[in-house]
Design goal:
This protein has 371 residues and is α+β, with helices and mostly antiparallel strands. It has eleven helices and 18 strands. Strands 1, 2, 3, 4, 5, 6, 9 and 18 form an eight-stranded mixed β-sheet that branches. Strands 11-16-15-14-13-12 form a six-stranded mixed β-sheet, sandwiched between helices. Strands 7-8 form a two-stranded antiparallel sheet. Strand 14 and strand 15 form a beta hairpin. Helix 2 runs antiparallel to helix 7 and helix 4 crosses helix 8. The longest helix is centred in the middle third of the chain and has 22 residues. The chain is globular and about 65 Å long.
Length: 371
């Protein structure tokens, strides 16, 4: 079936709690995006595959939009989503890649697509191969902390992932932070608190990107989506984005947010106040989030796509990702050739310390020149 969001919702809502997949294919995530300024020029379509008795076995939401003269289907959320894979029934036999390709091309023709463009498709998810990844090429980014398995006891998890020296430094900085005022870690349980934390996040992130000379991806439209994801369905206890903050005397010195599904927390946003940088607030809130996940019996924590020193402090595993460009028309095939070349170049730069160092230097110089 190819359905719009309203048509897919009844089957999707019943299927989702038991389905295997990432938080970025949840109904709440998709609804927040579709209602936001970020998604207003895109059409959400849901590919729903049923078994012989009519029960859903696969749900894949996509956004359809015209870009550069092509009609393209992409993952919901764009670059704000760390993973893309269909929600699948845990007991369904896995689809072969060739069969999935056939189904997608058939659906693409019905939707009058030129191509599918999917980023960050994992090779495996919860120990299961992801058939969609076999249709792609390695991404420029890998996802760090593919499976940071969590113990119910936060301290046991901390001892396992941090050395004694790192553990001691973290506690020392927390004690130093307490000298400045009352320190609290909070998980947003109201729209007002979520909005307060996110307001600080956007300010901190804008300053960070300015200093780096990097374009800020958190436009007003993106902020609208993130605010919706954090506040809609919050009263029911399962928002698309769970937001938390580290506060000193009520001031948000670090913010963190992630998407949750199936016992897995997938980090999506984080920031810290540069005035408190000496206390490593980014590391401190990361640990608080991991500890919270342990306490509420989540099984897995991941830091999402891309490298980062703060990520490697907590976990060493890397999840291999692919980017899938699947053409449907002749124009789509031509576009895939260009996309493959651009991906290869981006992957080469991101995996070269020398080239990435040069790029960061150029960005810093540009930032200083722009004031």
């Amino acid at each position: 079936d190819i359905l719009d969001l309203d048509g897919a919702e009844p089957a999707w809502r019943m299927f989702e709690p038991s389905a295997v997949g990432s938080p970025y294919q949840r109904l709440a995530w998709t609804r927040a995006y579709a209602a936001s300024e970020l998604g207003r020029n895109e059409q959400v379509q849901v590919l729903l595959l049923r078994n012989a008795i009519g029960h859903p076995v696969l749900v894949l939401p996509v956004t359809v939009a015209s870009r550069m003269g092509l009609r393209i289907a992409s993952g919901v959320g764009g670059r704000h989503a760390n993973h893309l894979l269909p929600l699948v029934a845990p007991d369904a036999p896995p689809l072969e890649a060739d069969e999935l390709r056939r189904l997608l091309v058939e659906a693409g023709r019905r939707l009058e697509l030129d191509l599918y463009a999917f980023n960050h498709v994992p090779r495996h998810w919860d120990g299961r191969p992801v058939a969609l990844s076999a249709l792609g090429s390695p991404s420029a980014d890998d996802a760090y902390a593919a499976r940071l398995d969590l113990d119910p006891d936060p301290e046991a998890t901390l001892r396992r992932i941090l050395s004694r020296t790192a553990h001691r430094k973290l506690r020392k900085k927390r004690n130093a932070l307490r000298q400045l005022g009352e320190v609290r870690y909070v998980v947003a349980d109201s729209a007002e608190l979520a909005a307060e934390i996110l307001h600080s996040f956007f300010q901190q992130k804008a300053e960070r990107f300015r200093m780096q000379g990097t374009r800020d991806p958190f436009t007003a439209a993106a902020a609208d989506f993130i605010n919706r994801a954090a506040t809609e369905d919050l009263a029911e206890g399962h928002p698309a984005l769970e937001v938390s903050g580290l506060l000193v005397d009520g001031r948000v010195v670090a913010a963190f947010g992630g998407a949750v599904h199936g016992g897995r927390f997938s980090a999506m946003i984080n920031s810290f106040d540069p005035d408190f940088a000496r206390y490593s607030p980014g590391d401190q809130i990361a640990w608080e989030v991991i500890a919270h996940c342990c306490r509420v019996n989540r099984r897995v924590f991941d830091f999402g796509a891309g490298d980062g020193l703060y990520k490697r402090r907590f976990c060493q595993e890397v999840e291999e990702l692919t980017d899938v460009v699947l053409p449907v028309t002749t124009a789509g095939h031509l576009a895939k050739l260009a996309a493959d070349g651009a991906l290869a170049a981006r992957r080469h730069v991101k995996r070269s310390k020398r080239l990435m160092g040069a790029l960061r230097t150029v960005r810093r110089v540009r930032a200083r020149m722009s004031g």
